[in-house]
Amino acid sequence: MNQPASKPEGCASGSTAAPRDAPTIAQPNTSVITRMNISASPAQVWRSLMFYEQIEEPPPLHLRLLLPLPIGTEGSKLAVGDQATCLYKGGHLLKHVTKIDPCRNYEFTIVEQRLTIGSGVLLCGGCYTLSELPGRRTELAVTTRYISTKRYRWLRKPIETTVCHLFHRHLLSAIRNKAMSH
């Protein structure tokens, strides 16, 4: 599901070679949300949350061709205010934890992007939202917020959205497998 979002804090523009500063002009931004129902309690799913850079198995071929290759994560991400450096082949993202409501919501912003994604995608942040379902199940929604700096949005947006959903499905599957193995 693709929903427009208001301009989130932490969205910044600039080159991938230096830390980004706040944008000086209004740029359209997008939120992409993907949901999965998981046969585990919210507490189990919460303990299984991870960033893309923490998934142990390599991404599928289509993601390796479309996105930078994740290497790992350094730093803490357990409390509001924590910052984690997410490492990729060719760069990094610095994620700042902005909200934690245990077993319900985990949010972060991107405060630095030294990484080329697509042709002009600037990541703003994201969140995990957990909703308890009957029968000891949980709906997990993953949201990615970004700004696309290139022209021809009508052509690029469906492609960006598709790639984002592919990325989300890989992440959600890894979280589901981890939650169900506990």
Structure description:
There is one protein chain. The protein has a single domain (29-180), classed as START domain (Alpha-D-Glucose-1,6-Bisphosphate, Chain A, domain 4, 2-Layer Sandwich), CATH 3.30.530.20. It is 23% helix and 38% strand. The chain has helices spanning 42-48, 61-66, 153-180; strands at residues 2-4, 29-38, 70-74, 83-88, 91-101, 105-114, 121-133, 137-148. An eight-stranded antiparallel beta sheet has the order 1-2-8-7-6-5-4-3. Helix 1 (42-48) crosses helix 3 (153-180). The longest helix is centred in the C-terminal third of the chain and has 28 residues, at 153-180. Residues 1-25 have low confidence and may be disordered.
What kind of oligomer do you see? single chain
- Provide the CATH top-level class: Alpha Beta
How many strands in all?
Answer: 8
Please state the overall shape, judged from the principal axes of the Cα atoms: globular
Poorly predicted spans: 1-25
**What share of the residues does DSSP label as strand, in percent?**
35-45%
CATH architecture: 2-Layer Sandwich
> Order of strands across the widest beta sheet?
1-2-8-7-6-5-4-3
CATH superfamily heading:
START domain
Helices and strands, in N-to-C order?
A: EEHHEEEEEEH
Average pLDDT reading: 86
How many strands, which pairing sense, and closed or not: the largest β-sheet? 8 strands, antiparallel
Structural class: alpha+beta
Number of helices, where a helix is a run of at least 4 consecutive DSSP H or I residues: 3
The end-to-end distance, rounded to whole angstroms, is 29 Å
Q: Work out the count of structural domains.
A: 1
Write down the Rg.
Answer: 16 Å
Give the fraction of residues assigned to helices: 10-25%
Fold-level CATH name: Alpha-D-Glucose-1,6-Bisphosphate, Chain A, domain 4
